[in-house]
Amino acid sequence: VTAFLNYARYKRGDAYISTAPTMPKLGKGTECVQLLLSQVSKDMHEPLVPMLFPILGAQVSGTEFQYPDLSWKELCGMMANLVADSGCNKGQLSNIVEAICHNFREHDEKELDKLVEWQRQMKTKSANKEKPVRPDVAFWFPPSDVTNAAFIQNAMGCEKLGARTQYLNMPEVEMADRMCGGHKQVSQMLRNIYDRQRAGALRATADGVTGNPVLRANITISSTPFAARKFYKNELFNGTFGRVIFSYKARNDRSGRILRQGTYDEEFLRQLDKYIVRLEACKGKFIIPKLNKLIDRLAADMATIADLTDDDVLWDISKRALVSAWKAGCLLWT
Predict the structure, then answer these.
(1) What would the DSSP string read from start to end of 224-237?
(2) How would residue 228 be classed by pLDDT, with cut points 50, 70 and 90?
(3) Burial letters for 129-141: b for 16+ Cβ neighbours within 10 Å, e otherwise?
(4) Secondary structure (H, E, C), 250-286
(5) Phi, psi of 220 (to 5 degrees)
(6) Which of 64, 228, 249, 251 has the fewest CB atoms found within 10 Å of its own CB?
(7) Distance (Å, whole) CA 196 – CA 65
């Protein structure tokens, strides 16, 4: 991005800038983000900000916002990938995930109890006895190691039990292969998730999972630069790459200083719950004129930069990047 901006400034005759712009100071309306970053080591503040919105977006259900093109969108389909070298503190993302999703854990424990009880009854019933019907369950925060059939089945449960968004955090990018049903299906699945499409399965036997739910899911992924390049190398120009937000953490200096991080104690969770409750309570349809006006202006800016750099790829990617930024703005407004 910096290279494109520098080139555009060069074309306009502006001064050349060799460094990326610094992260802006977080002001009014970003209190939730400030709270979440308060326990993160300072070197991870900037890389983790884009990763927060898919997690927070999963807390919102039954809500639609109007995009400037007059279409209505839910805050699902948000995907972000944290890219950093090994040992560069990517693990702090998982700590934030557990803090934000502690209410999801409580809900899923009850769902798991129902599922375990059903499985116990299935095993204890004799072959000639009628088997109990599988209960309707919906895991809001399913395990990262989930098969494609389990993902589709959970999507069916989430749709039936309130049209909820399921959230998945994958500490390694290769885990997406299993969820999508193989690496060849990754592109198709991620695009369907982003576009909130129906993508179910039709199976001939009763043992298979048959259904056609709306895919409401938000995903965060962590990976090294090498793993990310290898994983997405064939997805640069088919629309997949533009649907995922990538946040890069540069390698730390060799200072020999161990950076400190905080703890997510009960007091922290109590303060966080004030924002979570607001997200959960947001229901209905909304139009945010100021946000839509900002997105219109950003779209014009991106068109200008793409013209100055004569880059169609930048222009194509910017369209979905604006949607992702707009969804983050909807969350901050909420």
Answers:
(1) -HHHHHHHHTT-SS
(2) very high
(3) eeeeeeeebbbbb
(4) CCCCCCCCCCCCCCCCHHHHHHHHHHHHHHHHCCEEE
(5) -120, 140
(6) 251
(7) 14
Is 240 in contact with 190 (CB distance < 8 Å)?
A: yes
Query: What's this model's pTM, rounded to 2 decimal places?
Result: 0.88
Element (H, E) at 306: helix 289-309
Integer Cα distance of 68 and 299 in angstroms = 11
Alpha-carbon distance of 225 to 247, in angstroms, equals 11
List, as one string, the DSSP characters of 92-145: HHHHHHHHHTHHHHHHHHHHHHHHHHHHHHHHHS-TTSPPPPPP----SS--SS
Comparing CA positions, the residue from 39, 37, 32 lying closest to residue 47 is 37
Given this model, what pLDDT does residue 274 score?
94
Distance CA 222, CA 235 (A): 17
The SS3 assignment for 291 reads: helix
Q: In what order do the strands lie in the sheet with 284-286?
A: 72-73, 63-66, 284-286
Beta carbons of 140 and 107 less than 8 angstroms apart? yes
pLDDT, tens only, 157-216? 999 998 999 999 999 999 999 999 898 888 899 999 999 998 777 775 666 677 788 999
What is the mean predicted confidence (pLDDT) over 303-314?
A: 86
Beta-sheet pairing, 79-84 with 245-249: parallel
Instruction: Report d(CA 214, CA 207) in Å as an integer.
Output: 22
Q: Which residue has the higher pLDDT, 131 or 283?
A: 283
Hey, what amino acid is at 301? Answer: D
Which residues does 233 contact at the CB level (< 8 Å), separation at least 6? none
- Taking the C-alpha atoms of residue 142 and residue 217, their distance in angstroms, rounded to an integer, is 11
CA distance 194 to 197: 8
End-to-end Cα, the chain, rounded Å: 29
Whether the Cβ atoms of residue 213 and residue 156 lie closer than 8 Å to each other: yes
DSSP-assigned letter for residue 26: P
